[in-house]
Write a structure and sequence with these properties.
591 residues, alpha+beta, Immunoglobulin-like, Zincin-like, Neutral Protease, domain 2, 4 domains, 8-stranded mixed sheet, 6-stranded antiparallel sheet, 31 strands, 27% helix
Length: 591
């Protein structure tokens, strides 16, 4: 169908967190017309059931009120009469969920996420969609990746109409309304916009310089930028950080004062680089099943490790190549990530393909068993992407790398606009780089075999060593959280001593060997005991006092370092290391 679907969004009272939506369909066919509210946001693989926030649904044709029924959790059906010139549907969306995947409306700003706002009209997925946005205050700017229907390039204030070529584009361009202007700059020859929402201490000049460097590093890698304008919105809050990718924009959440330390600023920069790399890897280079989307149901794929894990790897690779991260820091971060993976027992049970497939029920629904029973395709995907890169370099004598796979996939997308078939990804990769990779995929992607770090690092003349010696005191084998001054067991690691002793998640730690434990004293109590000693641990479990005898273990290595070995390394290994790190062969992560 070619009729334009029109929406009108307004926020009459920001304090009540409601978005008023009016949907207009011209000349609908008589009979039953269905509308579906998406259940999830592409890029975040969990059914969030946005239909639960819809209220005050009604439908009209002229002055007549039409009958309708709610058929499922996210679908409404309307009785359309004969010779209906226009169908008008109105509903409200409650919007007070402060994250990048949902709506939040306040008196300081409004963030409007497409999938949690716009209903899809049956048969109109590919129709042109227009949306008129009315800000609650006249001085609020309207920031979005959508282009204005009147063709004007300036960021509008107060009210504007935007146009999308289809429903996919509409919901992939969130709207941010706030009394702040976009900071404009050029990078890679294209227009860039940065919007900072909320109080913050962002070092704007440095951010622009470094974001420019990151963008141009990616542009150099892929041979240019696939957009004319890119919008970065940072929503500041004190509860968490994250991001969600879109074809020509990204929405980030970051701490208001998180930029003040070197580590915090680096964390922001890698977060930005990660989301910007998604402009290619997932928004264009993608598994074929991830587009066009089924917005109402799960979209299963075993390839999220490709679009997320490889992106995690390249977020630092491209900062390294762009001169925004030193080789030493790059290797230090890689060693830390290896340590995190090796301290995740679930890596032994969950393959990368399984972790990708199970995202809908695992990654976004973590519980006490998560570290024991699953592994993140972000975390292990990053390490396996690095391992795949080094494996290809070693097996081709340094002639090929993971770069060749990504660039070839990008070239194919540019030719066809289609996603890649994930079931042939291994064979396609082998054809691109010219070496066998079946054993690698069987062991580390389809299988759960431990990575052979010694062999991987030998190929670049390096070894893996603990970054520092583990603590000498005893280890309980638990993760804890705090509730006020109380210490609560969050996870009991399946390979740790507390699992053997019968301690449970949600137990409240009270005492170790008769000495009271609270937030301030917990660490000190443990430091008095050595591995191999048995201590009596008292806990409250559902209000009842319990005691367990725990034989303390040895702390595992928390992080590793990658150490260059100049003596004994082959000329090929040194050359591959130089090409991998883009540094002289004498570079090392350790003096």
């Amino acid at each position: 169908m070619s009729e334009t679907i029109r929406y009108n969004l307004s926020i009459p009272d920001a304090h009540r967190h409601l978005i008023e939506v009016e949907l207009r369909v011209e000349r609908p066919q008589a009979g039953t017309l269905g509308l579906t509210m998406p259940s999830w946001s592409p890029g975040s693989y969990l059914l969030r059931e946005y239909g639960r926030h819809v209220q005050a649904f009604e439908a009209h044709a002229g002055q007549a009120t039409l009958g309708w029924r709610k058929r499922t959790r996210n679908r409404w059906e309307i009785d359309v009469p004969q010779d209906c010139s226009a169908l008008v549907v109105r509903y409200r969306v409650f919007s007070h969920d402060y994250n990048v995947r949902a709506n939040h409306v306040e008196d300081t700003h409004a963030f409007i996420n497409g999938p949690s706002t716009f209903m899809l009209v049956d048969g109109h997925l590919e129709s042109t969609h227009q949306v008129k946005v009315q800000a609650p205050f006249e001085d609020w700017r309207i920031h979005t990746g959508l282009e204005r229907a009147d063709g004007k390039p300036k960021t509008p204030m107060g009210e504007a109409i935007f146009e999308a070529s289809d429903f996919d584009e509409l919901v992939d361009c969130p709207l941010t309304l706030a009394p702040v202007d976009a900071i404009e700059f050029k990078a890679g020859g294209k227009r860039q916009q940065l919007v900072l929402v909320g109080r913050n201490d962002a070092p704007v000049e440095k951010m622009i310089a470094d974001m420019t460097g990151a963008i141009e590093s990616s542009a150099e890698f892929f041979g240019g930028l696939p957009y004319e304008r890119y919008l970065t919105v940072i929503l500041h809050n004190d509860t968490g950080r994250g991001g969600l990718e879109h074809r020509n924009s990204t929405i980030l959440m970051y701490y208001p004062y998180g930029y003040s330390t070197d580590e915090g600023y680096e964390d922001f920069l890698t977060l930005f680089c990660h989301e910007h790399f998604h402009v290619w890897n997932i928004k264009r280079i993608r598994p074929a099943v991830l587009g066009p989307f089924d917005y109402a149901n799960e979209n299963y794929t075993r390839a999220l490790w490709i679009v997320e894990g490889i992106t995690c790897y390249y977020e630092n690779v491209l900062l390294l190549r762009g001169g925004l991260m030193t080789p030493e820091r790059f290797l230090e971060l890689l060693g830390k990530r290896i340590g995190t993976l090796q301290n995740t027992p679930g890596r032994k049970l969950h393959s990368l393909e399984q972790a990708s497939f199970d995202a809908w029920i695992k990654l976004y629904r973590q519980d006490e068993s998560t570290p024991n029973t699953s592994v993140s395709y972000y975390l292990k995907g990053e390490i396996v992407a690095w391992a795949l890169d080094l494996t290809i370099r070693a097996r081709t004598g340094g002639q090929r790398s993971l770069d060749d796979i990504m660039l070839t996939l990008w070239g194919r997308y540019q030719e066809t606009g289609e996603g890649f078939p994930e079931e042939t990804f291994q064979q396609d990769a082998e054809a691109i780089v010219g070496c066998e990779l079946g054993d690698f995929f069987d062991a580390y992607i389809r299988g759960r075999q431990e990575l052979d770090y010694d062999a991987l690092l030998a190929s670049v003349g390096m070894t893996l060593q603990p970054a520092k010696e583990p603590p000498s005191h005893g280890w309980l084998g638990i993760n804890t959280s705090r509730r006020g001054d109380r210490v609560i067991i969050k996870n009991v690691l399946t390979d740790g001593p507390s699992a053997d002793a019968g301690l449970y998640a949600d137990d409240e730690l009270l005492a170790i060997d008769g000495m009271k434990v609270d937030r301030d004293s917990f660490k000190g109590r443990l430091e008095r005991h050595k591995p191999g000693q048995t201590v009596n641990v008292h806990v409250f479990r559902r209000g009842a006092l319990r005691q367990a005898a725990v034989t303390l273990g040895q702390h595992p290595v928390a992080a590793y370092k990658l150490v260059a070995q100049e003596e004994g390394a082959s000329d090929q290994a040194l050359a591959i290391r130089q090409a991998w790190l883009k540094t002289p062969t004498q570079s090392s992560s350790d003096d």
